[in-house]
Every structure is written in C-alpha cells, then in structure tokens.
Amino acid sequence: MAKAIGIHTLAEGVETREQMLFLRSIGCEMLQGYYYSKPMDSEMYVDYLTNSGIVVENVSDHQYWDSIGQINFLSPDPLNDIESQPLAENDISMFRESSSALALIELSGRDVKVQYANKSYLDGIKKIGYNSLAALEDAIENVPNVYYKDLIDQITSTLKTDKLIKKDHFANNIYFTYSTKCIAKSDGKYMIAASIRTYDPVHEVNRSDLFEKYSRVLLNTYDHVTVIDFKKDAIIARLFSKIGFPLEYTLLPLSEARKRFAKNEIPRNERDRFLRYIDYDSIHRHMEQTGNTALQQPFHIKFQDGEYKLMDVRIMRTTVEDGEKFLFIIQSMSPSALAISEEIIKTDPNRFTEW
User: Fold this and answer.
1) What percent of the chain has pLDDT over 70?
2) What residue ranges in 254-307 does DSSP mark as E strands?
3) Phi/psi of residue 30, each to 5°?
4) Which end of the chain is more exposed for a tag (fewer CB within 10 A), N or C?
5) Mean of the pLDDT values across residues 243-253?
6) Contact 222, 239 (CB under 8 A)
7) What is the pLDDT of residues 62-98, one digit of tens each?
8) What dotted CATH number matches 70-211?
9) Residue 4 and residue 221: Cα distance in Å, rounded?
10) Hey, how many other C-beta atoms are within 10 angstroms of the C-beta on 39?
11) Can you give the pTM of this predicted structure?
12) Which architecture, in CATH terms, is 221-352?
C-alpha cells in the first residue's frame, strides 16, 4: 500500500537476519533495530561510524536511492507500474510465466552489480544459461559486446531514453522477453530495473510450432546455409542448399573444406579474398570492430550448370548452441544490389580486398 501511494517506508524493530531479508525482499527502503545495533551514546555512535566504514549520503546519492525506493517489489508487473502504462490487450508476453521476475542492476562504466534479484528472476536467467548472479555479472562485464549485441543495444537504449524497453530474445533454446527501465542516475551510476519472461509450458508448444513453421519460410529465402565451428575445425551441418554443393565438404575438416570450396566453387581471381574472408581471426576482428554479429561480401559462386553468379556471402554468429558457432549463408541479391556490386567489382576491385 505504501508503494502504491508513493510513501517511503521505514521498518523498526528489526532484530533477526530473517526479518531483515524478508523486509528487503518486499522492497522496504530503510530498516532499524537491534539486528544492526542497540542504542548508543554520541561517542559510541561516532566510533561505530568510523569503524564500520558507513558514510552519510550526499544529496545526489539520497535522490538516487529515493528514486529506486519507488519501485513496487510486490507488484505483479513492477516495470509497467513504473511506466504507468497498462499492458496492451494483444501483448503476448502476458501468456508467459509470472511477470513478477525483478532485478535491480547497477552499472558504473564496465562495472556491473546486481543489487537485488527475486526468485523468479533467478529462475529466468538460469533457463537462458546463467546459473548465478555472478555468472550474469561476469558475462556483462567481460564477454565482448558483439556476442550479446541485442541485449547490449537494449541496455544502451534504456540508458538513453529512460523509457521502458521490451524486446524478445533467443538464447539457450529459450525464447524470452527482457524488459528494462533506468530508474535512477547519479554521478555516472545507473540503476536498471529488469524483468525476464519466458514461455510457460502450456503455450510453448503452440508457439514453438509457429516458430518452426515460419523459420522454414525464412530459411527458404536463402540459397545455402551451413553451420560451422572454427574452434573445432568442423562443419556441423548443412541445413539447406538450393545450389547443390557436393556433400564431401561436410566430411572434411573446416580448414580443408574452405580451401577446397574456394578452388572448386570460386573463380580464381576471387579465391584469395574468399579465404581471407572465411578466416576466424579476420571474422572475430571485424565483428569486434564493427559491433556486428554478421558480415557479408559479394562473391561469384559456381552453380551446377557451370555458370558463376554473383551472390551475397554472409557469416553470422549464432547463440543457438553452447560455444561459438557460425552460419555460412549464400543468398541471391536483389537486382539493384546486384547491379551495384557488379559495378564496384568492375571499377573498384580493391574495395573488397581490404579485409
């Protein structure tokens, strides 16, 4: 009730750790009682502050924590309460797990600290591959941004707009909605309220069927898709191919397959560029520099009739499986893109060699 009407809360008489943890879990902002200390005279109080390292809040920090204190930890949808916007009738995230998953994540430069997370949030992050808050903090701080570009873009938008940002993601074979809102700022620190919602078992089957159905439609827009693993030096699987490359490529180590593919399927004047392009160190460097998880260049590809056609060749990093996997994709170009690429290759061939 206090949260609903905007009143800050102080709980007195806190004597045990269990009471302290409970009050913190429901969002009580200030606690007082024997659990922290019995009454002191002024000299004892000064000594206590000196030895404990506790400092008095400045005005900026006071406003920072006051803003955080406004969040209603017991709301069934705390982030939408902050935004003061009702959920849309057709919002499919309502058909997912309980929307009460909540975490408060503090960002200060590259430092990340999860200041609070309830059980629903912990359950949610475990489903997408993080077994602890420490693992999540470590991933945000230390994993190159390119590997989690969608989530990093969402956090960036959250800090820029101060609005509730809600996006769908896919990780560890789980589809989920991640909601974020910046609720407080102070001297380079930002507190983000975050919520995660995954599909519940009742609706997941129907939704998965739809994803599979429309994934086939998307797949059909490509001419060739292969899953490759540079670290294992392996071609994991050929998912789809209209071009009809020999299956022997999938049986070779990736390092040998790329050389043989260049020799058999790429014209002589483009082979060196192709081998530089399909090189792990080069791919990793360019993805780090650009922040993109997908790269593309045009190459002439040999079809079964012996003719070469200019195609768009893409390398896309995936997060579908554990470890670092890539999709090797070949796709036809639109007439306008084809004309532009042909012109560049003809008039400025060095543009694509600077790889």
Assistant:
1) 77
2) 294-302
3) -130, 140
4) N
5) 89
6) no
7) 788 777 777 766 665 666 655 444 434 444 333 333 3
8) 3.30.450.20
9) 50
10) 7
11) 0.53
12) 2-Layer Sandwich (3.30)
